[in-house]
Protein: Aldo/keto reductase
Amino acid sequence: MEYARLGSSGLKVSRACLGTMNFGPTGGVGVGSCDEADARRIIDTFLDSGHNVIDTADAYTGGESERIVGRAIGRRRDSVVLATKAFLPQGSGANDKGLSRAHLTRALDASLRRLGTDYIDLYQCHQWDPETPIDETMATLDGFVRSGKVRYIGCSNFTAAQIVESQWAAERGGGTRFVSLQSQYSLLARGIEPEILPTCERHGLGTLTWSPLGGGVLTGRYVRDDTPDRASRIGRLLNSPSPLARAWAKDLLTERNLDIAEEAAKIAAGLGSTSTAVALAWVRQRPGVTSVIIGPRTLDQLTGNLAGFALDLPADAIARLDEISDAGA
Structure:
């Protein structure tokens, strides 16, 4: 099993991270559901395979994802790197969202209760809060670390400038710095390469990359000119009442993205592997990537995903994928 240090910290994490957005009776728009029995089987298999990072958030399936994860890890708690996130609304009140001291303090205590633990290994800001001074946020997070309720802190979906501001704020206050960033990264979405990945390296952040399969496009499930299965993720999005969801799905099924998916399928055939494994292996082998977040809804999907962490792509395959996906896209 391969592990890596998370940024400038001493925390060692597996190259695969189990994302749990699907865990619960109902997923969000375009997100499938995974009941507790199946979620437990996925968690057990993931941990039994030697991987150690599980990522959730207080907003996933109305908090049910955290409850399921907490119950599932049980007596394994101390061997799991448990990560969760806060920012999104937890109620209708003016202070029920964001990165203020008021909201984060309540959000952390609620996550600890749902997870059935007295500490979080990695507590992350789910997104930037333009309404709260970053000094307040970083001082609050530092207090969590000093109290023992949190071991390390990270951020999600921050820009390069926001990362720098956060680290400077921590330094000004003599507090705890971020050790990680969660960001989208795949053959279809390489926008973090020019600025964000170099900023993470300079400022001591490891990366936990999400959506490595490009919303499912890179699994090879979607064929050019065919109507997506209504049961698939993109099929659900295309049939959603939400105009934003439908637009997002159409943006995924572009000619460029399907060209990339077809090239990944050709490479997979030549290697005796799968499109899924090739796409995940490509992300895992990128410079600056610490751990890759996978979000299986079934045990079969987990098995297929984990194959990507045992596959080492040859240099010529990487070059072909780099060229067709274009770093500037």
